[in-house]
């Protein structure tokens, strides 16, 4: 048996870390964009004497911690051999939500094969991100799709996510080394700075939800929280002359909206670039 699914990537512009009473109510409040670039996973299942999962990402065998965590929850005690082949449109550990997209596309395909619901795919992917400390709000935002404001933490329907109108073109750029989400989320000082700078901004955009407000608040959050590196700050300042730009949380990367051709040209001086759109369709079987 085989199934294939696509999941959009996701960028967070600013956020607040929120601990809940359980995994489904834990996550973050924040705002961001779902992307037309993401992860495509082909999953095949066969009977076996013992349970096993193999994940190949972009042609390389991978530990794929988040994906395996999610799929094990779906499988329970069933003795199955699961093979996953995932193709990523964007680099990992750069704030583009690739771990969430890989886990969610794989989970959606496996749910199809096991006769489980779409919501179960979201639940196992969300829990896997929380447990592995590889993410907080990507799965919840992807659940809603489009430009999103996560007003209540956790996975919907426990969490609450508001959609903001618009499907602009987005230019992305990687300007530095990979940044592991786990290292940031495990640092008490950085957690404190994130929450001190994130909470009020979520309240502000909830009162005035717009892409312009999201971009403005994202840029001030990146600079004032101390998360933006020197190279990110330089790239954001250069891109801001042609539109609106900020840091993708959590990565040494930039996202921008405005004069797409000009932005791509300017940002290409700092690193590799991509052009995409805001995705409103969400994860889907192919």
Summarize the structure.
This protein is of the alpha+beta class. The protein contains 9 helices and 12 strands.
Protein described:
The chain is an alpha+beta fold. It has one domain: Ribosomal Protein S5, domain 2. 37% of the residues lie in helices and 32% in strands. The strands form two sheets. Strands 1, 2, 3, 4, 5, 6, 7 and 12 form an eight-stranded mixed β-sheet that branches. It has a four-stranded antiparallel β-sheet with strand order 9-10-8-11. Strand 9 and strand 10 form a beta hairpin. Helix 2 packs antiparallel against helix 3. It is globular and about 60 Å long. The mean pLDDT is 94.
CA radius of gyration is 18 Å
Content of β-strand: 25-35%
- The CATH topology is given as Ribosomal Protein S5, domain 2
CATH top level assignment = Alpha Beta
Q: Please identify, by name, the CATH architecture.
A: 2-Layer Sandwich
Mean pLDDT, rounded to whole units? Answer: 94
Count of helix runs: 9
Tell me the domain tally: 1
End-to-end gap: 14 Å
Return residue spans where pLDDT drops below 50 for at least 5 consecutive residues: none
Largest sheet, in brief, is:
8 strands, mixed
Structural class: alpha+beta
